[in-house]
Specification:
This protein is α/β, with parallel strands linked by helices. It contains 16 helices and 12 strands. It folds into 2 domains: 258 residues, Type I PLP-dependent aspartate aminotransferase-like (Major domain) (Aspartate Aminotransferase, domain 2, 3-Layer(aba) Sandwich); 133 residues, Aspartate Aminotransferase, domain 1, CATH 3.90.1150.10.
Length: 400
Amino acid sequence: MPTSKQHASNQTADQARTTAFATRLIHAGGTTDPVTGAVNVPIYQTSTYQQDGVGQDRGWEYSRTGNPTRAALERLIADLEGGVAGFAFGSGMAAITAVLSLLSAGDEVIIPTNVYGGTYRVLNQVFNRFGLTFRVVDTTDPANVEAAIGPNTAATLVESPANPLMTVTDLAEVSRIAHEHGLLSIVDNTFMTPYLQRPLELGADIVVHSATKYLGGHSDVVAGLAVVASQELADRLAFVQNATGGVLGPFDSFLLIRGIKTLGVRMDRHLKNAGVIARALQQNDAVAKVYYPGLPDFPGYEVNRRQASGAGAMLSFELASGYDAHAFLASTRLVALAESLGGVESLVCHPATMTHAAIPKEERDRVGITDGLIRLSVGIEDADDILADINQAIAAAKEA
């Protein structure tokens, strides 16, 4: 089982917290190799470690239990999120699965109305077979969360902004309500990253990431991360991670550390471009509605400003009557039609048939994930080029 030394932040991390966040992205977590002085932590591509005698290891036993490259990444994300310990998994869903495994049969989880489809699927088709239930709630009003809490409710699992309608939840208030009722407060921070939003500082107990997205940033690694706010949760999640074994490999851990080092400069460009695109779409008569927390008239704009330092680079929109969303999706040239998000390249997807297909159609329609909804991950290309491609695709989508 991983030791607290392997997962907890060290003295280097404490020193890093005194510096600017952009600097911490590069230097937090002690990712310089202490043996050689290499500025990048080595890739410890090994499954096991020689021991000096029975019960006399050198801090490492077996790479499912702990690996130095993975441990460096885990320290780094713990430092950035301001948590006690970090944990790296083979995907974002592996991270969520491990966190949900902290709960027991008979427990209930509250989730948002427009939660990521993979989260809905694992609850609805996997954990339900083990007696874990869930309740879908409009978490944009914290009063709804409190009203939904029942005798079996054990946790809240929210996203803000949520995928794909970008709805904003007051993380501090939901965490307060959760704690008043003895619940775990879990936040999926994939869209914002710790560069823009740090849920543990707002009272959450656990934060999770699909690190495949902005943290990796280059669409070349699949990974998940979790960070906890207490040693008690660290011990419990360390046990789950080791027992179930869905760990991130050393090479992918290395790639993720490398990606995180450029998160600040990438996010700055993502944010700038997303603002340009969102405003242009809002002013386009061919667009019926834009979902983006950075627009002043968007519900949740003020809450997002209070709890985050930016609006992120994810947005969704619906075309006006007389325009075919499927024709739009077939007509982009620069912007790729693809699953995923958060890479340097702009991506577009159709949530109803792609990312959220696991949610029943009647539920999708009820919350607004319609067949006409288009989700855009704004990349770091030149903003004029992104906009030109979107505009020509809109023109191609106009019905005769």
